[in-house]
Design a protein that fits this description.
heterotrimer; A alpha+beta (479); B alpha/beta (484); C alpha+beta (95); A: 479 residues; elongated; C: 95 residues; alpha+beta; two-stranded antiparallel ribbon; 3 helices; 3 strands
Chain lengths: 479, 484, 95
């Protein structure tokens, strides 16, 4: 049995979060009526000219800085020429020989707890194409050019991933980063973050890469993993049965869970790249780069490290809490509001709070419980007004809109009993009601201690402070 | 009224000697009467012209008139005009009603000029004789058997025949200067980036530049002042103040250093044309200019480099005209490829298809370096030749075209010979410099043009140098007898 | 370089131009003549010469990220060969 090694490189298209298109002033809102956001420039009318959106450049520079890349002082836009109905000008404006972002790397965390540095070759600015719709037109296709001219940053990795899981880890890390940077909304269903995977296999130790296939249309993390796994199996089967892998573009079919050859792209394309004569070289000066640097938020890795150090959290907890800027900010507001016990805050934010969000598929911004309110609840645990167990009920009530923690505690009479005499009174009642158990306990059956605790808690409706109950019972049962 | 220059018409309108409406009617009548012989127009816009003329008269009554308010002009059919057919001389855009205005058109509208119509041109500005137009050739008013030059041949013929006092043109390899020369009028191709290209249908984007055509340098100055200037819609348009060209026309030429490139006076130049050009240079000497010989050693490479760069850019620029969103679509396409290939083959004429094919080849895998990149390097050498020349001289002079207007049909079947008629104009586009052609005499009935080449953004100097000559000569005021 | 009929056909396909069989020899002839003309460039050694893509030695001007274009679909589609439900229609696109 021969051992195989998988080689994967990813080309990720991140749609930049600008208001207008990369070369025109048309809007880019998702889901508009067909062709209502396609202006004369996007339609490739005769005589129109592109003018580059400076925010697209700023966003590209931000990514470059965040991945430790070179933001090119001079880069060039080129035309990639081919005919396709969703490509109105007959060429796509892209960057070819001189991209705006050159080099860089991303450190990804793998499932086994180790991390790996993946090299990034380049990132370049380009315009998106429109869409062809195939339904309902009696054998014709309908062309919607709303998406034409939407700014994309194509981020190309080195072929340094060795499994589908690594590829997904890289993609997730990049996704996290572009969303952190605020340069992409990361919405994969709407196609704001999509991936083409170059996949090949080779015998372990072989010096050369195998022939690769490019898989298109990967718009979810799950699809990336499945498509790569399928493709790797397919290629190994091909080679082991004496066939060859052909270099081609393949389309992932999520319904069948397989990749298939794209016939229309089989024909060898000759894109005839040349510098776009409508666009002079893009010059990014130091001042521009410094402005982009100043606009950088704290990056995920730095934030994670800071959380671990500042709040004394485990690496895992710090990672979970910094998965998004929103969650991290929420957590920090809870901690600041409570003023202490960051670990308690972490448990609650990662635990009940996240669970409730997930259950209802809500964003933090739409959460019915805000950070200050959560801190208010934790404060009542801290000052022993309620037990941690009752706090869960209170949280659920807060989520349901019954008010803040104090209101719920008051309304439901959940305030913890810490008054010693009151607790003693309950203990006396329990002891009086259970003379047999009392006798057995005093005869040495220590195990019955738990029975008495349970009875006291039951009688106090869970409100008696557990520690005090313990101490007092111990005392009284001695007799 | 048709005999007057724009400057004179402007003065007449200002003095209330005639209204814009009357002026417009007069020119429309001439167009009606003479255009059938010349075929200078593709589309007439008589109705909207009269509306614009009345609006101009009203504006004048309100005291808000500028120098061009109420002055009739025509636009080359390469400039998009909202609501008016903009064909670019091609069948493929025969029914293309532009949905927006070119910046140049907007600027003339804002100045209150009156558009009489859209002029005929070589298809997509590819040609030197106006014979590649889908709408048929234009004839030269000086001799109806002769071509008017191209590609702005309709504009040149219309000005020469006094069907309009001024016109717009575009120049990618000589398309303003060569027809101006062949029709005996004045035309200037400004520095690349001086005039906005927004709405000017692209032939070769790094070479194309719009400019004015009129009878005199003074009129060109008035028109260029209206056309030029910054446009946020064209990122290759230069943000630089527009001089008051008219105010700078009268500077004396004493001490002007004029360079004559020896390469422009060698083999290939018709001897009779050479003689007329030399007489004009002698006139400049009398005006105080110092004439020196210079060399532009890479001149002979301009045409080879141009016929790579321009076709390469056009092959890409014209890809958008595919029968999907506008323009000609073939009948009953059987599939997508059929739609593309047949619509384009039916819509584009032979010369346009030739250039698309040459350009496609020059950019294709395996040939890019040998053709496209090589041409870009030659372009640098040509540009450097000019840079060095302008260290020595203020203006370069020479013939605009190696011959006077040739006969219709004479070169139509031989693209190479046709290409050579732009031998003196093309280098200027490759370098992006301004160039002007002015009438300086005749060979037989047919006019001869003198080309002036200036340094970057020296349009004011070129117009001044041409104007001083026109103050002491009358070639510019001669009219073809049939259209006097 | 001299182009044959097969090469012309290949270029014509890249350029999406349907060339009739009977016109192909004329195109091959004319294109070859044009290439011969442009190959005069080869007489000059351009080693080390920086290619000039553009006459202006300037930086690209950028625009602010502002939505400035309104919906003009009706206007644009009034000149379209075939539209339905706001879409441009073409023969089926096969992927």
């Amino acid at each position: 049995m021969m051992e195989w090694e998988t080689v994967i490189g990813l080309e990720i298209h991140a749609q930049l979060a600008t208001k207008s298109k990369i070369f025109s002033g048309a809007a880019i809102a998702y889901g508009a009526e067909p062709n209502t956001q396609a202006c004369a420039i996007d339609l490739g009318m005769p005589g129109v000219l592109p003018v580059l959106n400076q925010d697209a450049v700023r966003m590209a520079a931000m990514l470059g800085l965040a991945i430790g890349a070179q933001v090119a002082h001079r880069s060039v836009f080129a035309r990639k020429n081919y005919f396709y109905p969703d490509l109105p000008k007959g060429y796509q404006i892209s960057q070819y020989e001189l991209p705006v972002v050159q080099g860089g790397h991303l450190t990804v965390d793998l499932e086994d707890g180790s991390s790996k540095v993946i090299g990034i070759t380049r990132a370049h600015l380009e315009e998106d194409a429109g869409k062809s719709l195939h339904e309902d037109f009696q054998g014709l296709s309908g062309i919607d050019l709303n998406r034409a001219g939407t700014p994309l940053l194509e981020i190309v990795s080195e072929p340094e991933m060795r499994s589908a899981k690594e590829a997904v880890a890289y993609m997730k890390k990049l996704h996290q980063l572009v969303v952190y940077l605020g340069i992409c909304d990361g919405n994969m269903q709407e196609g704001s973050f999509r991936c083409d995977a170059n996949v090949s296999v080779r015998r372990k130790g072989a010096p050369q890469f195998g022939t690769r296939a490019e898989i298109k249309n990967l718009n979810s993390f799950r699809f990336v993993e499945r498509a790569i796994d399928f493709e790797v199996e397919r290629q190994i089967d091909l080679i082991e049965s004496g066939h060859k892998v052909v270099q081609e573009t393949r389309l992932y079919d999520p319904d069948k869970g397989e990749t298939r050859s794209m016939r229309s792209k089989e024909e060898a394309n000759d894109y005839r790249y040349f510098p776009d004569p409508d666009l002079l070289p893009l010059i990014v000066d130091e001042a521009f780069i410094e402005a982009a640097r100043a606009a950088l938020p704290e990056l995920p890795d730095a934030k994670k490290q800071r959380f671990a150090e500042q709040y004394g959290l485990s690496g895992y907890d710090a990672g979970v809490l910094t998965v998004s800027r929103e969650l991290a900010a929420f957590y920090e507001t809870v901690v600041a509001s409570l003023g202490s016990e960051p670990k308690l805050c972490a448990n609650w934010v990662m635990g009940d709070f996240s669970a409730f969000l997930n259950k209802e598929n809500r964003e933090i911004a739409d959460s019915p419980v805000n950070a200050e309110q959560l801190a208010g609840l934790l404060r009542r645990i801290q000052d022993r007004t309620i037990s941690g167990k009752l706090a869960k009920d209170v949280f659920e009530a807060m989520w349901a809109g019954e008010g803040d923690a104090d209101t719920v505690i008051e309304k439901r009479g959940l305030r913890q009993i810490t008054d010693t005499s009151a607790i003693e009174k309950v203990i006396d009642d329990v002891m009086a009601a259970s003379p047999d158990q009392l006798a057995q306990y005093r005869a040495g059956k220590d195990k019955l201690f738990g029975f008495f605790v349970g009875q006291v808690m039951k009688l106090s409706k869970g409100k008696a402070n557990p520690q005090q109950v313990n101490d007092l019972l111990m005392e009284k049962l001695k007799g | 009224m048709h005999k007057k220059t724009i400057a004179q018409l402007s003065a007449g309108l200002a003095a209330g000697e005639f209204s814009s409406e009357a002026l417009t009617r007069a020119f429309l009548e001439r167009v009606e009467r003479f255009n059938p012989q010349l075929n200078a127009f593709i589309t007439l816009t008589a109705e909207s012209a009269l509306i614009q003329a009345r609006a101009a008269d009203e504006r004048r009554r309100q005291g808000a008139a500028g120098p061009l308010t109420g002055v009739p002009i025509v636009h080359k059919d390469i400039f998009c005009t909202q609501g008016v057919r903009t064909s670019c001389g091609s069948r493929i855009l025969d029914r293309f009603i532009a949905p927006y205005n070119a910046t140049v058109v907007e600027k003339f509208n804002a100045a209150g000029a009156v558009m009489l119509g859209k002029t005929n041109m070589d298809e997509f500005a590819m040609g030197s004789s106006n014979e590649t137009s889908f709408y048929g050739p234009v004839r030269n008013p000086w001799d109806l058997d002769a071509v008017p030059g191209g590609s702005s041949g309709g504009s040149a013929a219309a000005v020469a025949a006094r069907l309009t006092p001024g016109a717009t043109g575009t120049d990618t390899g000589g398309s303003i200067r060569q027809p101006a020369a062949l029709c005996g009028i004045t035309g200037i191709k400004p520095t690349y980036g001086r005039v906005s290209r927004w709405g000017m249908i692209a032939y070769a984007s790094s070479l194309d530049q719009g400019g004015p055509m009129a009878r005199t340098a003074e009129d060109c100055a008035l028109l260029l002042a209206a056309m030029a200037g910054f446009d946020p819609r064209d990122s290759t348009c230069v943000d630089r103040p527009v001089p008051d060209y008219a105010a700078l026309l009268d500077q004396p030429l004493t001490g002007l250093k004029v360079g004559l490139p020896k390469e422009y006076f060698g083999e290939g130049l018709d001897s009779a044309v050479a003689q007329v050009v030399e007489e004009a240079i002698a006139e400049y000497r009398r005006l105080g200019a110092e004439i020196v010989e210079i060399s532009l050693p890479n001149s002979h490479l301009a045409i080879p480099a141009y016929y790579v760069v321009a076709p390469a850019e056009c092959s890409s620029n014209l890809a958008r005209i595919d029968g999907v969103r506008y323009g000609h679509r073939c009948e009953n396409p059987k599939d997508l490829q059929d739609l593309y290939t047949r619509s384009r083959a039916e819509g584009f004429g032979a010369e346009v298809q030739r250039r698309i094919l040459v350009g496609t080849f020059a950019l294709s895998a395996g040939y890019y370096d040998a053709y496209y990149l090589k041409a870009q390097q030659i372009r640098r050498l040509i540009s450097d030749d000019f840079r060095r020349a302008f260290d020595q001289v203020d203006v370069i002079m020479g013939p605009t075209s190696p011959t006077v207007a040739f006969n219709l049909g004479e070169k139509v079947d031989d693209p190479i010979t046709m290409y050579l008629s732009d031998i003196y104009t093309i280098a200027v586009n490759l370098a992006g410099l301004p160039g002007l052609s002015l009438p300086v005499g005749f060979v037989g009935q047919r006019p001869v043009g003198l080309q002036l080449i200036g340094n970057y953004f020296a349009e004011d100097r070129l117009l001044n140098v041409a104007h001083r000559y026109q103050q002491v000569t009358d070639w510019h005021s001669r009219a073809p007898a049939a259209f006097a | 370089m001299s182009l044959g009929i097969a090469e012309v056909a290949k270029i014509a396909h890249l350029a999406r131009l349907a060339i009739r069989k009977e016109d192909a020899p004329a195109y091959a002839h004319n294109l070859s003549a044009i290439l011969e003309l442009v190959e005069q460039m080869n007489a000059v050694d351009t080693t080390g010469v920086t290619p000039m893509a553009h006459p202006l030695d300037m930086a690209q001007r950028l625009r602010m990220d502002v939505v400035s274009e309104a919906n003009q679909r009706e206007l644009f589609q009034a000149i379209a060969p075939r539209v339905e439900a706001g879409l441009y229609l073409v023969p089926k696109v096969i992927e």
